[in-house]
Amino acid sequence: MPAGLPYFAWVDAGETTFGSEHLRWDESIFSFELKQEEGDPASLTVKVRRPTCTATGDAIGLLGPGRKIWCWFALDCGPALIKFRGRLVGIPTSIFEELVTLEFVARPFDVVAQKEALADTLRVLPYYDPIMLDKERRKDPDVVLEGYTKVWHYDRETHVLTVSDEITGEDGLVEFDGASEGGKVFWDGLGLTLASGPLSRVDISAEFTWSQQARGTVDLTNYLISHWPRLPEQAAGTIRSLNASDWPKHGTGIGDGWEVAESTAQDMSDMSTHTESAHSKIELIESDGSTSSSEWSATQTTTNARDTTSFGSIVTNDSYSATHDVDPDGGGSTSSSRSHSESFALVAVQSIKATLVAGYSAERQCTEKVSLTLFADVQPILTDPEDGEALRIDDIRSVNLSDPEEGTPIGDPRRRSYIATERGNRSLEHLIALARTNLMKRARAVEITFAPKLSRMPEVTLRKSAFLAEPRVGEALGKIIAYSIALDGEDGKPNCQIRMACTIGYGGLAVADDGLPTYCSTDYVGFDYQQFVGRTVLVDAFLDSSVGYQPPDASPNDDGIDFLSALTADDVIDVGLVVEHGPDPTKEEEEQVPNNAKNTSDDEVQQQTEARSEYIKEFILPQYETRAKFKLKSMTREFSTDYELQVTDLKIPTGYDLEAVCDEP
After folding, report:
1. Residue 383 region, left (φ>0) first, then alpha (ψ -120 to 50), else beta?
2. Nearest Cα to 324, choosing from 309, 334, 313?
3. pLDDT class for 279, splitting at 50, 70, 90?
4. Which secondary-structure segment (H or E) carries 310?
5. Which pTM was predicted?
6. Residue 499 pLDDT more than 90?
7. Cα–Cα dist 68/26, whole Å
8. Which residues of 349-470 form beta strands (DSSP E)?
């Protein structure tokens, strides 16, 4: 069979394997073009003689019912065949001409199902992070490739859908080095173009949000007792100037997200009154042997309270009477009696023995804002790379990281930081992947087109790289991004073309650095708690060691509460305890206190008693009024922390050395 001979066979859709039975000519081909470009299925355009009915000579509808619309096409390239299986698409052009043009595409009929199935296998960190996408976008299989330097690849024979790397072909290298007859390329058809200039850097801003949730209790008893003002004689563990009824009760709100979980209070002083009586009798023996007696009795009513202060003694009664019995013989007797009563005012101060356990229910909105700049280590085209074009991506926001419906990505919603966790580091690597993808793609700034010999074309697919050594361009290594084979029946000369894209980086590898742990041995504490100085890790998923970063230490801009630990009063007190009493009475006011006042009438007693009562209420009792205030840290606050992620420059392969070309004489 002569090289360059095309075969064409109409087949059923189920004939997916090429065999010798397909080496036939169901149509007379006058010209054809087989081509494929990166990301698209291969296509075949053929010119054939217009099909007619043998009996009538009328044109046959190629898309009519019952017609086969699938074909196998093969071209003998010498050592091997290049094959294509496709489906007829559209209405044939030039239908009324002698020659008609048929167009076929090697697009799988189940492309949607294949793409969705393949996308499922690619939804892995750090290339794909579902928490950075809303639920609708997650359904789009094309979104999966945003973190990959890959494109969809359609096999021109099997129609199996895969992905192919845009920098290095996974199926090997096709070499055109001129060292052998097959390695040479034709003089004509060579071209070099500069695509849009490479990106100098990518700036990314992202927000990670979650609702910090926690439930628990904190015992405030010791804190309140130890910080409450006390007198030297006061009983230990008691709180002065409060009644048990004043103490907060269970369920009382005591701050944002706080309430009393447990509470007890016991009055330490008995405020009831009691009466004490005393009686005495004295008998006197006169010189003449007679006797006389003197009797007295006293009654006092007071309170049982220990901590009291007396204010104002008012004499309510003071009367004296005497009786003289005179004997005509010069004798006689005398008797006397006195009645005295006073009224005292006592101010009793209560103390309590109390406990207080506060319960919290935290629901705090936390945000970590991460920014990073990834520079590309690329050769300049017209300007210094640092002055080149930059891409900014700043619309990246996570889902609620504590949402159970999302799988609670933060792990424990009590955490103060997400990005400092192992899962958080994977999200940071995803951001780096997004930046890396854009820089790598734009680094393919040189496209070279060349014309190989027909015999090499069966080796060519869009899953391979090509190496070209040619005096006019030097050496180039790049990914094959397009190929075509065309033949015009007028001259019978096949025209082959390959286009490759070459990166213009400086090459090299990013270097990891273990850094120095700041706490202790790295084996002693977990990932969440250890911190390092000068640590740089490579993103293991990027097998080319192209970029590294410094995992950030947790440094949340919050109020310091660590819900992962047992909380104490010191952890949750925002404003410390302040106990205030009323002002002390002035000297002028003190003089108004009736003290040992003696009254001559009931009206005066009444007036003095009422005056004393009013004074005590207005000036004395207020100084014992107690106001205790403290503030607990809010359980409903919002916090935001900014982080600037440190990354190495992105190392990009040297597919084509522009500087070496420029240095040539």
Report:
1. beta
2. 334
3. confident
4. strand 308-326
5. 0.82
6. yes
7. 11
8. 351-377, 389-400, 446-450, 465-470
When mean pLDDT is compared across 183-187, 237-241, 352-356, 607-611, the lowest value belongs to 607-611
Closest CA to 119 of 92, 139, 103: 139
At 146, the amino acid letter reads E
- Cβ density class 536-549: b for 16+ within 10 Å, e for less: bbbbeebebebbbb
Instruction: Give the burial class of 444: count Cβ atoms within 10 A of its Cβ; 0-12 exposed, 13-18 middle, 19 or more buried.
Output: buried
Q: Which residue has the tokens 């002390």?
A: 584
Structural tokens at position 609: 């008693």
Specify the DSSP element, H or E, that contains 83: strand 81-88
- 136-145, 180-189, 435-444, 586-595: which has the minimum mean pLDDT? 586-595
Please check the confidence at residue 386 and state whether its pLDDT lies above 60. no
Band (pLDDT 50/70/90 cuts) for residue 1 is very low
State which amino acid sits at residue 501: A
Q: Return all residues near 136 (Cβ < 8 A) that are at least 6 apart.
A: none
Q: What is the secondary structure of 8-66 as a DSSP string?
A: EEEE-TT--S--GGG-SBSS-EEEEEEEEETTS--EEEEEEEPPB-TTT-PBPPTTSTT
Alpha helices in 174-318 (DSSP H): 221-227
Radius of gyration of the chain (CA): 50
> Could you give the 3-state DSSP secondary structure of residue 138?
helix
112 membership: H or E segment, kind and range = helix 111-122
Q: Which tokens in the block code for residue 364?
A: 């705090």
Separation between Cα atoms, residue 348 and residue 158, nearest integer Å: 99
Q: Tokens standing for 577?
A: 């305890």
